[in-house]
């Protein structure tokens, strides 16, 4: 059942990205281009997402188990540290350069956009590099 729920959630998310136009990098870049003809539609999509997510997170904080019975797993980190800030800057720079963030990139890749495949390949490479660096960091910490 969890795999089906994850699939249906991803399907709804992907359809929402397609219907809102957020899988189109030109739309995202139009939002980020404050000097040109600014496209405010991404702000409305984000606002809608926040309006849906905020009550759901408030409810989730009061529960110990999800609706389908799995243990509730909410983020525990609350500190804003150097790694968070640097990671956010790199994520934002990549988003601004390519017009994609991970979710819309996967949707666009599935729709056959060649640029999205390149972005997804770079994203996977970045994730692999991060994993390798984290493992090396943990190994150094254990031997020190």
From TrEMBL:
Residue ranges of the TM segments: 41-60, 84-110, 116-133
Protein origin, superkingdom: Bacteria
Record's keyword terms, sorted: Membrane, Transmembrane, Transmembrane helix
Protein name: Membrane protein
């Amino acid at each position: 059942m969890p795999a089906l729920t994850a699939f249906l959630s991803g399907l709804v998310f992907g359809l929402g990205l397609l219907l809102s136009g957020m899988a189109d990098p030109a739309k995202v870049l139009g939002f980020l281009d404050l000097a040109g003809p600014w496209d405010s539609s991404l702000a409305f999509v984000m606002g809608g997402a926040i309006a849906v997510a905020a009550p759901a997170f408030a409810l989730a904080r009061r529960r110990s188990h999800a609706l389908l019975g799995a243990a509730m797993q909410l983020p525990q980190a609350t500190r804003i540290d150097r790694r968070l800030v640097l990671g956010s800057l790199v994520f934002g720079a990549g988003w601004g350069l390519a017009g994609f963030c991970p979710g819309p990139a996967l949707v666009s890749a599935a729709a056959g956009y060649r640029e999205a495949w390149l972005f997804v390949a770079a994203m996977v490479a970045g994730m692999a590099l991060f994993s390798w660096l984290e493992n090396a960091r943990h190994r150094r910490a254990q031997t020190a």
